[in-house]
Amino acid sequence: MSGVEGKDVTLIEGAARSSETVTQVAEAAGLVGGEGHVRYVPTRAARDRVVADDDGAWAPALVSRHRKQARRSVGAVFQFPLETEGQDSDTPASLTTFVTDWTGLPSSCAIAVHPGHPLSTGLGPEEQAAFTGRFCRHPLTGDLLPIWVADWVKPEFGTGAVLINPGHNAADLEFSRKVGLPVRFSLAPKDYDGAPTDWPKPPFIKSGYAFRTGATDGLPFSEAKTRYFAAIAERGLVEEYTDSGMGTFPIATIGAEGDVDLAWDSRRRTLAARGDGGDSIAVTLSPVLRGAEQHVRSSELTVVTPSTRVEDDLLALRLLLAEPELEPAVKNAPEVVVVSNAQLAKGVGADVPDDVLGLALLVSAGPLDTLSVKPQHIEPCERFLKAHEGLSARERVAGQDLSQETAKAAGQIKGLLERQDLKQAFTQLYRLQKNLAKSETVGAADVSCYGVLAHVLAGVEAPHAPEELAAAWKAI
Length: 476
Description:
- The strands form six sheets. The protein has a six-stranded antiparallel beta sheet with strand order 2-3-13-16-14-15, with helices on both faces. A four-stranded mixed beta sheet has the order 7-8-6-9, with helices on one face. It has a three-stranded parallel beta sheet with strand order 1-17-18, with no helix packed on it.
- It is of the alpha+beta class.
- It contains 13 helices and 20 strands.
- It is elongated and about 110 Å long.
């Protein structure tokens, strides 16, 4: 139907083969590696577009499923200005960090980033953490905070950077004791006077009063938290934000052999920047990666063949199409069709012709369904295709107008096809085929009209040029 309507159609099947495409994804979004896979890390911008349904006119059912998959975390995005002395001129102005709890913000002592983060210096094979040699400014106090790389930081959560506050967070305390970071406090019990006998024991979590924080000293922790936020917001360094976590998606498999060779930065566990060398690895690219290719991003219809993890693949495809830094930018989502899958039931031989099996799937299974193909699915499709050959070979009367019966049936079938009620469309098309086949004489206009419908529904060859097909479809 898209073909006769002149739409730009893309079929996504088989591995992508473009090293340029995977490099573009690495630069525009992010790629991380581990356990034999290269994984795509969606940007915040792409995740926000998908959750807000701001990436085009996707099917409501698909939008609803993807929203349910998102893991929402309420918090704020803080800007930590980077210390630029001695750094390159293209050093970013700040390190962006998503924080869900800033009750003890003044005592934060460091920031940790994931190994593939742009500010990361990477980790060796046995390393779990390493100091980058970089510092950033605390947006509230102006203190210099060291930036560390840690293998436990999740690249898909927030911005892939974590604020370290060991005095008021159990996980941060464990990390800080391993690498030797200071443990400070900015919350303490009420009436705490600093006496050694009452020193707070870390982690002191979401309780007590502001301590050693200057103007907020003595305030309950919840009020102090509000004051911290207001002070930093006044400086333009924080905004409220709800993160929509969607995980990472495998888009390539690392192996001894592959479709393309890529430069791999083993320390940062991501693609090496162009011209930076890196280890050469062989990878097999996923079909989903084609969602980053320009002709896919600009197509009006995208057809996706089945996979063993089709729900995740569809979400990854949608996120890739929503990435703002991949060109051309997608203004409207393509219509996405997922091809059904087939399993042959007992009594159905493996020698079923592809055209028969394809038609049986089309008219008997819905998108994402796996059809157990039985004889009752195969037989009507075989009869229809055989009768089609006979009807196409019949002599027809030229110059005869389209009959009212055929015109009426064709209009109903076209409406069913446009509503994607393929089962009922096939039933009515089969009935029209039988009526034409048993007529003593059949007009060329009737056969032509039927032929277009059979071509659209079943994909059978039609003895018409593309422009004739388009005109015949439009005339129905």
